[in-house]
Amino acid sequence: MNAPHISAMKWLACFAIVFPILFLGGCKTYPALTPDEKHLAHDYLIGPGDNVDIIVWRNPEVSMTVPVRPDGKITTPLVEDLPASGKTSTQLARDIEEALSKYIQQPVVTVVVTQFVGPYTEQIRVIGEAARPQALPYREEMTLMDVLIAVGGITEFAAGNKARIIRSVDGKQQQFSVRLNDLIRDGDISANVPMRQGDVLVIPESWF
User: Fold this and answer.
1) SS3 label, residue 194
2) Distance from C-alpha of 47 to C-alpha of 140, rounded to nearest angstrom
3) Is 58 exposed, middle or buried (0-12, 13-18, 19+ CB in 10 A)?
4) Cα–Cα distance, 99 to 93 (Å, whole number)
5) What span, in angstroms and rounded, lies between the C-alpha atoms of 154 and 163?
6) What whole-number distance in Å separates Cα of residue 36 and Cα of residue 59?
7) Three-state SS for 205?
8) What is the bridge-based pairing of β-strands 200-203 and 124-128?
9) Residue 27, pLDDT score
10) Which residues on adjacent β-strands are paired with residue 127?
């Protein structure tokens, strides 16, 4: 075997070690949605960083706006360290009612979320060659186009049609190829696919 061929083999071996994710079976074609998935309802779950308005009927002294702490809990007058993350506003309202019932007879509580971040497990994360890589709160019927608008599109160095979505399916990580260039530059709406809670959009850099 000649020297140039050996050098090429060594280069490929090093590349496989440094960039193993590119050799893990490749990306699958984005799956078509079933009729049930197309109409899947989504209840917003409270997460760290959210602000919640707590309204206690006829008790303004314990009604207030509080942030959800990084540990996922809230503190209000008469209620300390109450877990809020991962709950709907209705679930949190019932929990507050239960906590306040020690001090107020039959409290009636309404919780309104006023700043949306959501739990980490439901956020959409965009990494790589996006104009503004970031984590986004998931919204019902959110699509790839919505995500691209939120992050300001892709950079001039992005390999848009080599982007992929990493998704947890039945506890296993799967990768699906997506076509950002076709969607953004060519207006190919067929490349606009639905997003799911916890998706990670990876936008690689073009080599050329």
Assistant:
1) strand
2) 16
3) exposed
4) 10
5) 11
6) 43
7) strand
8) parallel
9) 65
10) 202
- 62 near 52, Cβ under 8 Å? no
Give bridge partners of residue 167 from the DSSP assignment: 174
Tokens representing 136 are 């986004």
Instruction: From residue 103, give the alpha-carbon distance in Å to each of 62, 83, 99, 106.
Output: 11, 19, 8, 9
d(CA 88, CA 94): 10
Residue whose structure tokens are 């947890």: 168
Integer CA distances (angstroms), 5 to 13, 75, 169, in order: 12, 67, 41
Residue 184 token pair: 């953004």
Domains in the chain, CATH or no CATH each: 51-115 (3.30.1950.10), 123-208 (3.10.560.10)
- Per-residue confidence (pLDDT) for residue 19, from 0 to 100: 41
> What does pTM read for this prediction?
0.78
HSE toward the beta carbon, residue 33, CA cutoff 13 A: 14
Instruction: Look up tokens 């006023």; give the residue.
Output: 114
H helix count then E strand count, the chain: 5, 11
Q: Mean per-residue pLDDT for 155-169? A: 96
Q: Cβ distance 78 to 56 under 8 Å?
A: no
